[in-house]
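User: I'm writing a tutorial on reading structure tokens. Could you give me a worked example: one chain, its sequence, then its tokens, then a sentence or two explaining what the tokens reveal?
Assistant: Sure. Here is the example chain.
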Amino acid sequence: MGILMSALILQTAPTIEPVSLAEAKMHLRLDTETFDDNLSVTQSLAFGSHAIADNYTTHAGAAVEVFGQQAVVVLSAGTCGAGGTVDTKIQESDDGATWTDAASGAFAQITTANDNADHKLAYGGTKRYIRTASKVLVAACEFGTSIIANAATLTDEDLLTALITASRQHVEDITRRALLTQTWDYSIDACPPGDAIKLPFGNLQSVTSVKWKDADGTETTLTEGTDYLVETNGPACGRIVLPYGETWPSDTLYPSNPITIRFVCGWEAAADVPATIRAAVLMVLTDLWENREAQSQAAAYNENPAVSRLLASARLWDELP
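And here are its predicted structure tokens:
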């Protein structure tokens, strides 16, 4: 059949990075603001006497944007009525409209035994928005919630943001992986000789489409489950596999990129990226930041032995067309 040729085109870049701007600032010890300037306090649920409601919607707070910031949620409890209880949890959202409960985001229940006190809980997720949601049982209770965010800034924030992306891309080049959710088009110029097509970058989440063109340029979209099966294979390279009795298209194919597979890959959240890879990203970032105006030194990060050791076990060695 000859040698298969392939092409890769990024369709959708990651919307988050393996390290946030706040984490990068902390790692580099960068901050040009005062402690007071860095902190913002935003009310989610106004303090007051809140009536009995056996649900988490009646007393849902307002959304607060915390993307890229450290955040702590404060529950200020006043007096609970006799036998009254308050259950409060942190909820998170990508868009401020659809909400899910944050992991480890439930406060200890407020009762008459621990009311008239402030309670705090750190938010450890990666979503853009958070809020609180509370239910009140038995008797009305006084309480409210606020969100404290650490929004430390520095003059070269735009540069640092760009270097975070550059560091992630460099680690992706070394490991041959896509670290966080991104969409790619993978095109090959002929059907493979076997019953499977291996996809690059590892951590395959899904295959959006498999399309092929005949000699006249007429495009056909294959059906998952009927024409092909998808193997995600965890952190290894995913594959598209023929079901029993099926074959790849046998027609004469279009001369330019006749077969195109669109797929989504990468870890879904920054917290899912292995600690060794995140450490390597921070190490590359440090070299780029500290040596950003010295070309001879800046080139050194490419041969940093610590980065190589951190990434040694993460590199994908699979051969692709």
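What the tokens reveal: The first strand starts at residue 6 and ends at 12. Residues 157-175 form the longest helix (19 residues).
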